[in-house]
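Feature request, filed as a ticket because there's no other form

It would be nice if the structure record came with a short human-readable summary line next to the tokens. Right now we just get the raw output. Example of a typical job, pasted below so the devs can see what we mean:
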Amino acid sequence: MKKRVLLLIGIFFFISPFLVLAQSGNDDAGSPDAKPVIQQDSDDEEQGNARESQKCENVTRRMSSVTSRYDANKERYMNAFQNIYQNIDELVLRLKNEGYDTTELEEHLAQYNEMIQNSNRYYNEFRTGLDNSKQGVCGNSDVDATQQFNSARTQLMSCKNEMLELRTYAQETLRQDILNLREEIAE
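Raw output as currently delivered:
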């Protein structure tokens, strides 16, 4: 007898949550406040749109903070490289007017200027890739956001490598050309 009572109580506790859920589902269907199934789909769609909007805002905020930092660094380095170029260019003009042979330094300076232009181009492609990626995430474009982001990362690495080469080129090649000219002047 005790076993039967325990079995009935167990069945009652096991089945009662399902009965309550079924009853509350029937109560909602008959009430005037009940939402039709179609409206639930639109609610899911609205929640999806809200998530996409939040994702777009987050990506936009992160990208703007990252790009502002990169822009500041790029400007600082490019100003330094441009100053090196202008100072050496003025030196070349002055030495050329004094009659010294500056052809080797002029060739290396032209190469240096081309490297500066490449670095700027890589950076601009990086920014374009980030903007395209952001537009893809925000749904303003049909581009693949991940592919654009990876492309932007590649361009950023190319820009960084080019800047390292610029620094090395100035320290080793241009400096050596200037030292050679100094020796020629001292003779």
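Something like this underneath would help us a lot:
Residues 14 and 126 are 61 Å apart (CA to CA).
The helical segments are 2-30, 37-97, 103-137, 145-186.
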